[in-house]
Amino acid sequence: MNFDSVLDDVGGSGWWQLYVSLLLWAPSFFGGVHVLMFSFTGLEPSNGFRCKVDGCDKDDFAFGDVPSDIFKRKSDGTIDYCSYRDYTKLDNGSCVYNSTQFISCKPSDEYAYAPFEFESTVVTEMDLVCDRQGRVAWVGSAYMVGLMVGSYLSGALADKYGRKKSLLVGIILSSGGSLVGAFMPEYFSYLATRVITAIGAQNIFMNAFSTTVEIFGKDKVSFLPWPLQYKTVAGVMIQAPFAVGMALLSTTASFISDWATLQWTTSVATFIQLLLWIIIPESPRWLVASKKMDEAKKVVEKAARMNGKKNYVFDISNTIKMEDIPKKDEDVPVNNTKYGIKDLFNPALIKISLVLMIIWPITTLGYYGITFSMASLNDNLFLSFILSSLIEIPSYLAVLIFMDVWGRKPLFSLSLLVSGLMCILCGVLDEGTLRTVLAMVGKFFASSSFALVYMYTAELFPTTIRSTGVGVCSFMARIGGISAPQIAISLPKVASASAPFYVMGSLSIAGGVFSLLLPETLGSNLPETMEDVSRISAQSKPVWKCAKFKQTT
User: Which of 90, 426, 428, 435 is most buried, most CB within 10 Å of its CB?
Assistant: First the structure.
C-alpha cells in the first residue's frame, strides 16, 4: 500500500490541498518576478547614445549636443551609434563633423544617452554598449546557467532534507541574491548575483511544484467527461502565478524608472515568502517515504480535519503495511539491474530519446526567446510584456482541456508549429498592432508546448529510467535557455532585427515536425519496462482522432 491510500482516507482533493497549493503559488509568483527582472534592469537605450568626443565635448556633455547626421549608417539603414564622423576643430573651440571618415568609440570612452523608458539601467550605468554590448545577453545566459545548477541542487536538497527546508534555502538565495545585486558597482559582481538568484529561483519553483503534486490524491474532476485528475490541474496551473508575477513586475517597472530602485524594492518584497516556513507543512508523502512517521501523523491528521474528517487517526500499522517501509538493515527484494544514460539509446527508446533531446532545447528557446524579444515588438514596452505574460494563463487552461481529449502528441506538435509560424510572420511584418497580436499568439502556443513537455516526456520513458530520461532532457533544455538571450538580444545587433524571429520560428517548426515521430501516450498506463514503451508505440492513437471516455463519477 502507498501514500495514495492515506489520501483516499483523508481526502485527496479537499480544502487542505487547496489551502496548501494556493500558498505555494507565492514561490511560483516570485519566480516570474526574478526571471523577468533583467528585461527591465538591463534594458538597452532605444533612442540612441554616443561616446564623448575628446576636445569637443565638455564634462557635462549630452546626447543632443551634436547633430544626428554625424553617426554612421549600417548596410540596412539603421544608425550605428558606435561610430561618428571625424571632425575639424575650429579656432573658437567648436567642432565641425563634416568628414567622410568615421571614428569608432573606445571601451574607455564616457557615454551619454538619449532619453528612453528608464532614467538608468545596468546598461547605461555600466556602459554596456558598443564593444561591451555583448555582455548584456550574457547576463541572461548566466541566469539560465543558474537555473540549470538550481535544477540539480533542488532535487538533491529536497530528497535529502525535505521540500520545506529546500524551499527555505531557495528563498534566501533568490531573494538575497536579487537584493544584493541591486547594489553591485560593476558588471561581473552583478553577473554573479544573477546566477545566485537563478539557483534559488529554480529551487523555489521546483519545490513548490513537487509539493503541490505530492499532496493531491488520484481524485478526478467529476463534472468533466474525461478522467482529468485534480493533481494534473494543480501541477499545470501552478505555472499561472509565474505569469502573473511577470505581469506585475512589468506594471511596477512602468512606474519606477531607476533600475536599482526597481530591483531592491521588488527584492525586499520577495522576502515575504519566508512566512511560508511558518505556515506550510512538509510534504507528508516525503515524510512517509523518509520514515518520519510522527511528523507525518501531525500533518496528515491536520489535513483530515480541514477536509472534514475530524475523527480520522493516522495509524501506521493499519494505513501502510510495515513491510512496505523496509528498515535500513533489512534485506528486501530489489531489482539489481542498473540503468544509466546509455540505456536511453536502447533500440526501444533510441528514437524517442533523440527526438526529445532535439525538442526540449527548441521548446525552451521558443518560450524564453519570445519573452525576451517583447522589448522590440512595439513602442509600448510595458504593455507588450504585460500582455505576453498574461497570455500564458489561457494557454495553460487550453492544455488542461485538450490534452486528455485530443492527446499529447497532436497538441504538442500543433503548439510548436503555430508558435514557429507566428515567429516567422513577426519577422516579415513591420512594427505595428498586427505584429504584436501575432507575437501574442506565438507566446500562447509556446507556453502550451512548454507546459506539455515535462508531462509528455515523463509518460514516454519507463519507470526504470524515467528520472534519468527527464533529467537528461532537462539538461538539454538549458542549451535552448542559454541561447535565448543571445538570439533575442545579441543577434539583432549583428544581423537584422527580424533575424531572431526567423531563427526561433524555423527551429520551432522543425521541432513540431520532429515531434510527430513520438508515440501518443493518451489512454496508456505509465510504462514500467522497455517492452511497455514498444507496446505504447504500437498502439499509439492517430493524431487526427480524439479519445473517447465514459463519464466519470
Answer: 426
